[in-house]
Amino acid sequence: MFASIWEQSVPFHPFWVSHSRIVRAFAPRIEDPFVIEEEVLPPRSPACWDGRATHNPTVVSHGGRYYLYYTGITYPEPFPDPSDGSSPFFRSQTARRSQRIGVAVASHPRGPWRRPAAPLLEPRPGRWDALMTTNAAPCAAGEGRFLLAYKSSPAPRGLLMYGMTCGPGPEGPFARISDQPIFDFYAHGNHSEDACIWRGRDGLEMLMKDMTGGLCGEAGAGIHATSEDGVKWNVSPGIAFPRQLDWTDGTRSHPGCLERPQIVLHDGRPSHLVLAMTDGPETILNARHTRNVVVPLLPTTNA
Prior knowledge:
The protein is mainly beta. The chain is about 5% helix and about 40% strand. The chain has helices at about 10-20, 90, 95, and strands at about 1-5, 20-25, 35-40, 55-60, 65-75, 100-105, 135-140, 145-150, 160-165, 175, 190-200, 205-210, 220-225, 235, 245, 250-255, 255-265, 270-280, 290-295. Strand 11 (about 190-200) and strand 12 form a beta hairpin. The protein is globular. The mean pLDDT is about 90.
Protein backbone atom coordinates (compact mmCIF):
# COMPACT_ATOMS: atom_id res chain seq x y z
CA MET A 1 0.00 0.00 0.00
CA PHE A 2 1.13 3.52 -0.84
CA ALA A 3 -0.37 6.18 1.39
CA SER A 4 -0.09 9.80 2.47
CA ILE A 5 1.03 10.44 6.04
CA TRP A 6 1.92 13.29 8.39
CA GLU A 7 2.67 13.58 12.08
CA GLN A 8 -0.22 12.81 14.43
CA SER A 9 0.40 16.12 16.15
CA VAL A 10 -0.57 17.90 12.92
CA PRO A 11 -4.33 18.22 12.16
CA PHE A 12 -5.45 16.99 8.75
CA HIS A 13 -6.93 20.34 7.75
CA PRO A 14 -5.37 22.52 6.51
CA PHE A 15 -1.94 20.95 7.04
CA TRP A 16 -2.15 18.10 4.54
CA VAL A 17 -1.18 20.62 1.88
CA SER A 18 2.03 21.52 3.71
CA HIS A 19 3.08 18.37 5.63
CA SER A 20 1.95 15.36 3.58
CA ARG A 21 4.45 12.81 2.27
CA ILE A 22 4.10 9.41 0.64
CA VAL A 23 5.15 6.12 2.21
CA ARG A 24 5.08 2.45 1.25
CA ALA A 25 3.54 -0.03 3.69
CA PHE A 26 3.32 -3.84 3.67
CA ALA A 27 0.93 -6.50 4.98
CA PRO A 28 0.90 -10.29 4.38
CA ARG A 29 -2.70 -9.96 3.17
CA ILE A 30 -4.64 -6.92 2.11
CA GLU A 31 -7.02 -7.27 5.08
CA ASP A 32 -4.19 -7.47 7.63
CA PRO A 33 -2.71 -4.42 9.40
CA PHE A 34 -0.13 -2.63 7.28
CA VAL A 35 3.29 -1.60 8.58
CA ILE A 36 5.10 1.40 7.10
CA GLU A 37 8.42 0.33 5.60
CA GLU A 38 9.80 3.46 3.98
CA GLU A 39 9.18 7.01 2.92
CA VAL A 40 9.02 6.92 -0.86
CA LEU A 41 8.95 10.55 -2.01
CA PRO A 42 10.49 12.66 0.77
CA PRO A 43 10.74 16.46 0.63
CA ARG A 44 13.48 17.85 -1.56
CA SER A 45 14.49 21.32 -2.73
CA PRO A 46 11.67 23.89 -2.66
CA ALA A 47 12.83 24.80 -6.17
CA CYS A 48 11.42 21.47 -7.38
CA TRP A 49 7.76 21.36 -8.40
CA ASP A 50 7.17 18.63 -5.75
CA GLY A 51 9.78 19.86 -3.29
CA ARG A 52 7.81 20.38 -0.09
CA ALA A 53 4.99 17.79 0.02
CA THR A 54 3.67 14.76 -1.87
CA HIS A 55 0.09 13.58 -1.61
CA ASN A 56 -2.67 11.30 -3.00
CA PRO A 57 -0.69 8.34 -4.39
CA THR A 58 -2.21 5.94 -6.93
CA VAL A 59 -0.06 3.08 -8.22
CA VAL A 60 -0.62 1.05 -11.39
CA SER A 61 1.33 -1.83 -12.90
CA HIS A 62 1.76 -1.65 -16.66
CA GLY A 63 4.16 -3.38 -19.02
CA GLY A 64 6.29 -4.82 -16.23
CA ARG A 65 6.85 -1.47 -14.53
CA TYR A 66 5.17 0.43 -11.70
CA TYR A 67 3.82 3.96 -12.04
CA LEU A 68 3.19 6.05 -8.94
CA TYR A 69 0.90 8.98 -9.72
CA TYR A 70 0.84 11.66 -7.06
CA THR A 71 0.25 15.32 -6.31
CA GLY A 72 3.40 17.37 -5.80
CA ILE A 73 3.39 20.61 -3.80
CA THR A 74 6.00 23.30 -3.22
CA TYR A 75 6.22 26.71 -1.58
CA PRO A 76 9.07 29.04 -0.52
CA GLU A 77 7.97 29.60 3.10
CA PRO A 78 9.12 27.45 6.06
CA PHE A 79 6.83 24.67 7.26
CA PRO A 80 3.83 26.42 8.85
CA ASP A 81 3.22 26.25 12.58
CA PRO A 82 0.75 23.39 13.34
CA SER A 83 -0.85 25.51 16.05
CA ASP A 84 -1.95 28.19 13.57
CA GLY A 85 -4.22 26.92 10.82
CA SER A 86 -5.39 30.43 9.96
CA SER A 87 -1.93 31.87 9.32
CA PRO A 88 -1.16 34.07 6.29
CA PHE A 89 0.47 31.00 4.72
CA PHE A 90 -2.86 29.23 4.35
CA ARG A 91 -4.83 32.36 3.52
CA SER A 92 -2.51 32.99 0.59
CA GLN A 93 -3.36 29.58 -0.95
CA THR A 94 0.25 29.39 -2.23
CA ALA A 95 0.65 25.68 -1.51
CA ARG A 96 -2.78 24.73 -2.86
CA ARG A 97 -2.20 26.66 -6.06
CA SER A 98 1.11 24.85 -6.60
CA GLN A 99 -0.46 21.38 -6.73
CA ARG A 100 0.53 19.45 -9.85
CA ILE A 101 0.21 15.82 -10.96
CA GLY A 102 3.36 13.81 -11.61
CA VAL A 103 4.34 10.16 -12.03
CA ALA A 104 7.36 8.34 -10.54
CA VAL A 105 8.52 5.09 -12.18
CA ALA A 106 10.15 1.93 -10.80
CA SER A 107 10.75 -1.66 -11.88
CA HIS A 108 9.62 -2.95 -8.45
CA PRO A 109 7.19 -1.67 -5.79
CA ARG A 110 10.15 -1.29 -3.42
CA GLY A 111 11.82 1.06 -5.88
CA PRO A 112 14.05 2.85 -6.41
CA TRP A 113 11.63 5.40 -7.83
CA ARG A 114 12.64 7.78 -10.60
CA ARG A 115 11.02 11.11 -9.78
CA PRO A 116 10.03 13.39 -12.66
CA ALA A 117 11.69 16.71 -13.25
CA ALA A 118 8.37 18.26 -14.29
CA PRO A 119 4.66 17.58 -13.74
CA LEU A 120 2.47 15.80 -16.28
CA LEU A 121 -0.15 18.51 -16.61
CA GLU A 122 -0.34 22.24 -16.00
CA PRO A 123 -3.39 24.38 -15.17
CA ARG A 124 -4.83 26.69 -17.81
CA PRO A 125 -5.24 30.33 -16.74
CA GLY A 126 -8.71 31.70 -17.33
CA ARG A 127 -10.29 28.26 -17.81
CA TRP A 128 -12.26 25.90 -15.57
CA ASP A 129 -8.96 24.22 -14.56
CA ALA A 130 -7.03 27.40 -13.75
CA LEU A 131 -6.23 26.67 -10.10
CA MET A 132 -4.27 23.40 -10.04
CA THR A 133 -4.02 19.83 -11.34
CA THR A 134 -4.46 17.15 -8.69
CA ASN A 135 -6.15 13.84 -7.70
CA ALA A 136 -4.86 11.82 -10.64
CA ALA A 137 -7.01 8.86 -11.75
CA PRO A 138 -5.05 6.77 -14.29
CA CYS A 139 -6.37 3.82 -16.31
CA ALA A 140 -5.04 1.70 -19.18
CA ALA A 141 -8.04 1.85 -21.54
CA GLY A 142 -6.73 -0.57 -24.20
CA GLU A 143 -5.90 -0.05 -27.88
CA GLY A 144 -2.80 1.96 -26.99
CA ARG A 145 -4.77 4.50 -24.96
CA PHE A 146 -3.91 5.52 -21.41
CA LEU A 147 -6.41 7.76 -19.66
CA LEU A 148 -5.63 10.19 -16.88
CA ALA A 149 -8.45 12.06 -15.15
CA TYR A 150 -7.57 15.09 -13.02
CA LYS A 151 -9.31 17.45 -10.63
CA SER A 152 -9.17 21.22 -10.74
CA SER A 153 -11.21 24.35 -10.10
CA PRO A 154 -11.48 27.80 -11.62
CA ALA A 155 -10.76 29.55 -8.29
CA PRO A 156 -9.75 28.80 -4.66
CA ARG A 157 -13.40 28.58 -3.56
CA GLY A 158 -14.76 27.22 -6.83
CA LEU A 159 -16.46 23.89 -7.51
CA LEU A 160 -14.20 20.85 -7.83
CA MET A 161 -14.36 19.54 -11.39
CA TYR A 162 -12.84 16.67 -13.37
CA GLY A 163 -11.23 16.70 -16.79
CA MET A 164 -9.90 13.83 -18.87
CA THR A 165 -6.64 13.46 -20.74
CA CYS A 166 -5.31 10.71 -22.97
CA GLY A 167 -1.80 9.58 -23.87
CA PRO A 168 0.00 6.72 -25.62
CA GLY A 169 1.36 5.29 -22.35
CA PRO A 170 1.48 5.76 -18.58
CA GLU A 171 4.06 8.56 -18.81
CA GLY A 172 2.15 10.43 -21.50
CA PRO A 173 2.43 12.92 -23.00
CA PHE A 174 -1.16 13.58 -22.02
CA ALA A 175 -3.52 15.80 -24.01
CA ARG A 176 -6.96 16.91 -22.91
CA ILE A 177 -9.76 15.03 -24.62
CA SER A 178 -12.05 18.05 -24.28
CA ASP A 179 -11.71 21.66 -23.22
CA GLN A 180 -14.64 21.15 -20.86
CA PRO A 181 -15.09 19.03 -17.70
CA ILE A 182 -16.35 15.49 -18.25
CA PHE A 183 -19.56 15.99 -16.23
CA ASP A 184 -22.36 18.51 -16.69
CA PHE A 185 -23.69 18.41 -13.12
CA TYR A 186 -21.43 21.30 -12.11
CA ALA A 187 -23.95 23.71 -13.65
CA HIS A 188 -26.38 22.72 -10.89
CA GLY A 189 -23.94 23.40 -8.05
CA ASN A 190 -22.88 19.77 -7.59
CA HIS A 191 -19.25 18.75 -7.52
CA SER A 192 -17.05 15.76 -6.80
CA GLU A 193 -13.51 14.70 -6.04
CA ASP A 194 -11.26 11.68 -5.40
CA ALA A 195 -11.98 9.77 -8.60
CA CYS A 196 -10.60 6.32 -9.34
CA ILE A 197 -11.06 4.54 -12.69
CA TRP A 198 -10.78 0.90 -13.71
CA ARG A 199 -11.63 -1.32 -16.67
CA GLY A 200 -14.64 -3.45 -15.85
CA ARG A 201 -15.98 -6.32 -17.88
CA ASP A 202 -18.49 -4.04 -19.61
CA GLY A 203 -16.43 -0.87 -19.99
CA LEU A 204 -14.82 1.79 -17.84
CA GLU A 205 -16.02 2.49 -14.30
CA MET A 206 -15.39 5.32 -11.87
CA LEU A 207 -15.93 5.98 -8.18
CA MET A 208 -15.97 9.50 -6.74
CA LYS A 209 -16.97 11.35 -3.60
CA ASP A 210 -20.18 13.40 -3.78
CA MET A 211 -19.22 16.65 -2.10
CA THR A 212 -22.69 18.04 -1.35
CA GLY A 213 -25.01 15.04 -1.63
CA GLY A 214 -26.82 16.55 -4.59
CA LEU A 215 -25.92 13.58 -6.80
CA CYS A 216 -26.58 10.56 -4.60
CA GLY A 217 -28.51 11.98 -1.65
CA GLU A 218 -25.78 11.83 1.00
CA ALA A 219 -22.99 14.38 1.35
CA GLY A 220 -19.59 12.69 1.37
CA ALA A 221 -20.90 9.35 0.09
CA GLY A 222 -19.70 7.60 -3.05
CA ILE A 223 -21.05 7.92 -6.57
CA HIS A 224 -20.47 5.55 -9.48
CA ALA A 225 -20.15 6.38 -13.18
CA THR A 226 -19.62 4.33 -16.33
CA SER A 227 -18.27 5.01 -19.79
CA GLU A 228 -17.61 3.14 -23.00
CA ASP A 229 -14.80 5.38 -24.22
CA GLY A 230 -13.64 7.55 -21.30
CA VAL A 231 -15.09 10.65 -22.97
CA LYS A 232 -18.80 10.47 -22.16
CA TRP A 233 -19.60 9.40 -18.59
CA ASN A 234 -22.97 8.48 -17.12
CA VAL A 235 -23.56 8.80 -13.37
CA SER A 236 -25.38 5.80 -11.90
CA PRO A 237 -28.37 6.52 -9.65
CA GLY A 238 -28.12 6.02 -5.91
CA ILE A 239 -25.24 5.66 -3.44
CA ALA A 240 -22.20 3.62 -4.47
CA PHE A 241 -20.94 3.49 -0.87
CA PRO A 242 -22.45 5.27 2.17
CA ARG A 243 -20.54 7.40 4.64
CA GLN A 244 -20.60 4.63 7.23
CA LEU A 245 -18.57 1.56 8.12
CA ASP A 246 -19.79 -1.78 9.45
CA TRP A 247 -17.07 -3.48 11.50
CA THR A 248 -16.46 -7.18 12.13
CA ASP A 249 -17.34 -6.75 15.82
CA GLY A 250 -20.90 -5.82 14.85
CA THR A 251 -20.57 -2.07 15.43
CA ARG A 252 -21.25 0.69 12.95
CA SER A 253 -19.52 4.06 12.69
CA HIS A 254 -20.15 7.24 10.72
CA PRO A 255 -16.77 8.81 9.94
CA GLY A 256 -16.39 12.51 9.42
CA CYS A 257 -15.12 11.70 5.93
CA LEU A 258 -14.59 8.72 3.67
CA GLU A 259 -12.23 9.81 0.93
CA ARG A 260 -9.95 8.63 -1.89
CA PRO A 261 -11.81 5.43 -2.88
CA GLN A 262 -9.46 2.97 -4.56
CA ILE A 263 -10.57 -0.32 -6.11
CA VAL A 264 -8.52 -3.54 -5.91
CA LEU A 265 -9.31 -6.05 -8.68
CA HIS A 266 -9.18 -9.84 -8.46
CA ASP A 267 -9.75 -11.78 -11.70
CA GLY A 268 -11.14 -8.60 -13.22
CA ARG A 269 -13.72 -8.05 -10.47
CA PRO A 270 -13.56 -5.48 -7.65
CA SER A 271 -12.52 -7.42 -4.54
CA HIS A 272 -11.74 -4.62 -2.07
CA LEU A 273 -12.50 -0.96 -1.59
CA VAL A 274 -9.73 1.04 0.10
CA LEU A 275 -10.72 4.32 1.73
CA ALA A 276 -9.16 7.11 3.73
CA MET A 277 -11.23 8.04 6.76
CA THR A 278 -11.28 10.76 9.37
CA ASP A 279 -12.81 10.59 12.82
CA GLY A 280 -15.95 12.65 13.52
CA PRO A 281 -18.00 14.44 14.07
CA GLU A 282 -18.17 16.45 10.85
CA THR A 283 -16.04 16.68 7.70
CA ILE A 284 -12.35 17.52 7.54
CA LEU A 285 -12.64 20.74 9.54
CA ASN A 286 -12.85 18.90 12.88
CA ALA A 287 -10.76 15.83 12.05
CA ARG A 288 -7.89 15.02 14.40
CA HIS A 289 -7.00 11.53 13.17
CA THR A 290 -6.89 9.98 9.71
CA ARG A 291 -6.61 6.32 8.80
CA ASN A 292 -6.87 3.93 5.87
CA VAL A 293 -9.47 1.17 5.90
CA VAL A 294 -9.88 -1.86 3.62
CA VAL A 295 -13.45 -3.00 2.92
CA PRO A 296 -13.89 -6.52 1.44
CA LEU A 297 -16.34 -6.67 -1.46
CA LEU A 298 -15.98 -10.38 -2.20
CA PRO A 299 -15.80 -13.35 0.21
CA THR A 300 -12.47 -13.29 2.08
CA THR A 301 -9.84 -15.69 0.75
CA ASN A 302 -6.24 -16.43 1.57
CA ALA A 303 -5.16 -15.75 -1.99
